[in-house]
Design a protein that fits this description.
about 35% helix; Aminopeptidase; single chain
Length: about 325
Amino acid sequence: MLSLSRFPDADLPRWREIVTERRFRLRELAFTGEPELFAPVADARTRAALEVLLPDGGPGPQQALHLVSDDGFPIGWVWLTRLSRERLGLVDASLVTPDRTADLRDLVERTAAADGVTEMELVLVPGDDTHAAWRAAGPAHLASQRRVLPLPEPRGASDATAGAAGADVRLRAMTEPEFDSFFARSSREYVESRRASDPTRDPGEVQQEAESQLRALLPGGRATQGQSFWTVLADDAPAAELWVAVEPPGAFVYEIRVDESHRGRGVGRAAMRAAAQWCTEQGLSALGLNVFGDNVVARGLYESLGYVLVEESLTVTLTRL
């Protein structure tokens, strides 16, 4: 029978080493596109992330690190964080016997439900045995996926164009009025998505926090260094909007939006190919993105373009005991 107990303080330094290696290998390294070449970058990102997650070397006041035992024998650990009174997040978990993961998930969910938790949020990496077993152990709502496209070596300059249903798709830098319209809509939709993700929070507080995050991300607006905003032209007519952030050694698609009048014509596919081509010409090694779980069409598109699944965010609804 599985049981949870407080993780021994004496073992925390070794546990932090293990967590650092897992984050480096399972999460950060996957986003570089060329693991051997950019391992130092992934290492720096790993350590920066853990400085935030573990500022004092161990779990913070809203976190819990449990030793997992099977009939008294330690077989792994589970790291949880309290997101709110009714929401609990799984930060990471690892068992030396992954076949017991289903029992661990059941134990964690029952314990959480007894403590008033109604929803668990999970961030799982398909390449890890414990994470894969947790994903397969029961129902969960797919909130989003993170995917990465490894990019080839540059093959010479071009004008970042791609064919779409017989038309040329070209990337043109947004004008100031285009950016203002794009930013206003993106800000509104971002605030709405944040409110929907946590309806228990004060709407005004959520809006203020979301707007503050966007201002921090884009202090220079359209001219913010490392941010590229394009109007996608199909047959020289505006057909879509695209926002890509360069985060060496790769880049990340923050948003792509195809105008309704141009949907179903291959514009999105061509725009993503043009963006990948542009990134390749900049000497970048990977292009990443997030896609909502309920956007089945977009998920299929990215998979067909070669984007590899590296991370999934899921939610599990718990029943009060």
